[in-house]
Amino acid sequence: MNATRDNLTIGLLPRAGEPPVEWQVSHTPVDYDRALAVMTARAAAIARGEAPELVWLLEHPPLYTAGTSARPADLIEARFPVYVAGRGGQLTYHGPGQRVGYVMLDLRRRTPDVRRFVATIEQWIIETLAAFGIRGERRDERVGVWVRRPGKGEGFEDKIAAIGIRIRHWVTLHGFALNVAPDLTHFSGIVPCGVAEPRFGVTSLADLGLAATMADVDAALRAAFQPLFGTAVDAQALASNENCSPRRRSANSSELASR
């Protein structure tokens, strides 16, 4: 019988004897081109066995990213720069007040199962939200983490965390974006993740009445990470000596149509 997203095995602990995952937090916004260059170089080094795995938590300036399934019609208004991300998924927003997590793990050191990895990322976010009394849920037909909003009407749900990944040589890139206290009106320039039904929107901890700081969220993320993925230790500061900047395009570019 085929596994559904509800009965997949959760958790990707490393093999015995593997070094801990490094944990890096950037406290000022990181330009998207620099972040992608650093992440790409680090993932390549992990694949070569030259660097430990890494979780990098950060914020970006306001921008939109287009995944490999993005549709031109879903870019309603390019209010901010648009980048071709190379990850799976469609269009999403990043900006201040949103905790982005770039997750660089070598699945060969764990279990080379992409579906299990995505489900475990979702579970990580679900357990992080539970620390604040929020019930996050996964949906078979919609990747990410969702919150029911009965006050808006029957069947209404809002996405609180988006997930988009890429796998290269069994090393993961990109990760998740958890809405802590972003300006939710910034999502209006796109159809977030291609979900256009009016009953499905976006929300945040602040929108749900939680006055959590980014430091509070980071602590909850780290506590929820370790039972699922293994020990994490503080990382050294990341260098920015790569030259592989992503492609940025204008609002009228046709490049999105081929992604």
Can you lay out the helices and strands and say which pair or pack?
Elements: E1 21-25, H1 32-47, E2 54-58, E3 63-66, E4 82-84, E5 91-94, E6 98-104, H2 114-130, E7 137-139, E8 142-148, E9 157-168, E10 171-179, E11 200-202, H3 214-229, E12 232-234, E13 248-249
Parallel strand pairs: 1-2, 1-12, 3-4, 9-11
Antiparallel strand pairs: 2-6, 3-5, 4-13, 6-10, 7-8, 8-9, 9-10
The radius of gyration computed from the alpha-carbon positions, rounded to a whole number of angstroms, is 17 Å
Total number of helices: 3
End-to-end Cα distance: 33 Å
Strand percent estimate: 25-35%
What is the tally of beta strands? 13
- State the share of residues found in helices, binned by percent: 10-25%
Topology as a string of helices (H) and strands (E): EHEEEEEHEEEEEHEE
Shape: globular
Structural class: alpha/beta
Biggest sheet record: 9 strands, mixed
Structure description:
This protein has about 260 residues and is of the alpha/beta class. It contains three helices and 13 strands, in the order βαβββββαβββββαββ. It has helices at about 30-45, 115-130, 215-230; strands at about 20-25, 55-60, 65, 80-85, 90-95, 100-105, 135-140, 140-150, 155-170, 170-180, 200, 230-235, 250. The strands form two sheets. Strands 1, 2, 6, 7, 8, 9, 10, 11 and 12 form a nine-stranded mixed beta sheet that branches. Strand 9 and strand 10 form a beta hairpin. Helix 2 (about 115-130) crosses helix 3. The longest helix is centred in the middle third of the chain and has 17 residues, at about 115-130. The two termini are about 35 Å apart.
